[in-house]
Amino acid sequence: MRRYLHLLIAAIMLSVGAASCCVETIHEYPDEGRAYVTLTMNVRNLAPEIYTVVDYTIDNANPGIFGIDEWRSLQTRTFDAPQFERYYLGENKIASDKWNLRLVWEIYHGSNEEVRTGRGQLVERNVQLIDAAIELPSHTCHVELPGGTYTLLAWADYVPLGREEDYYYDTRNMAAIKSDLPLREECEDNDLRDCFARTYEFRIEDVKYLGEPRYAETTLVRPQGRYVVLATDYKDYLELSNVPVEQNEADCFYPTFLNVGYSIPEARPNLSASNIGYKFVPQRYIFDQAEMVSLGDDYSFVNGKESHLILNLTVTNPDGKQVSKNENIVFAMPSI
User: Which tens digit of pLDDT belongs to each residue from 224-253?
Assistant: First the structure.
């Protein structure tokens, strides 16, 4: 039996997002040597854009037995523009009556290099809760600052409704944000692993002169890539498990490593974990106008332009019987 599984890789635009440090000079008018700065932070929370699709074929010498010894990469297709019609991950489905988008930011006196090396001076840290259902949300803050160079470290993630404290990610140190690993392994809702980040450096000059204030604005983007595993044999899963595919359980396991921490000043992962996984509820999925079943869906922080992952995937029915087992799925998580 020949089965086809597709891995959809969501590439993120780090080149214009969290991996770059934007520098802007703001000429503001002062009050006794202090400028009035209006800073707007946008969050680009649209569905991830698909640039790369990796197709895998499984050749099984034993029809009716869903186990494999080898994965063979057939083709990798990379596009100049995102493919929304054929390859689509779907919009954010987080319930706004249960969850908030949480925006956390810190302003430092000093350049990003000074902040990165621990020489920046913290001016303020604040938190703002935003309706999780808002598309492309933004928040504006007002600060009084003397002349000099400043760096904004901004982060956004999802927390239970009304909660300002850390939940899924530990943000006490913005240079070493890390996932809550026990919660990561328990959580079956992939959207809760979504997050956004930005480093933004700006300068205030000529504070001794009066002038018209200007606005500084920046946008937070995903520091992660995302993949989805799709199986073409939707009807076979129904026959083997004798229940709707949603009643089965997929055990997704990373035998080598997964990036689980991130440094905003350095715009790169700085922590990994091995031998971890997550549970996933298989879903009916329409891909390329065909009926399939999704078996896995996850995010990972991307190191540079590309990070490689290895995934083991086992599906069981409600009685605990193994429906399928696929090991050593190797794929790349790119950023463009």
Answer: 887 778 777 777 777 777 788 889 899 999
Token couple for 3: 């089965």
Are residue 36 and residue 149 in the same domain, yes or no? yes
If asked whether residues 204 and 248 sit together in one domain, one would say no
Provide the H-helix boundaries in the chain. 112-116, 181-186, 234-241
Q: Which residues pair with 128 in a beta bridge?
A: 103
- CATH number of the domain that 203 lies in? 2.60.40
Contacts of 78 (CB under 8 A, 6+ apart): 51, 52
Domain count, the chain: 2
The single residue listed with the structure tokens 């090991």 is 327
What is the phi/psi pair of residue 151, to 5°? -130, 130
Kindly report, residue by residue over 136-164, the tens digit of the pLDDT: 999 999 998 888 899 999 999 999 999 99
**131 and 231 share a domain?**
no
Encoded tokens for 36: 């009035």
Q: Are residues 240 and 160 in the same domain?
A: no
Domain extent at residue 148: 20-46+94-220
What confidence tens digit (pLDDT) does each residue in 259-307 have? 999 999 999 999 999 999 999 888 887 766 777 788 888 888 987 767 7
Each residue of 31-73: pLDDT tens digit? 456 788 999 999 998 877 655 555 555 544 433 333 333 333 3
Residues 172 and 304 in one domain: no
Phi then psi for residue 72, to 5 deg, are: -125, 120
Amino acid symbol at 17: G
Tell me the C-alpha distance between 305 and 99, whole Å. 31
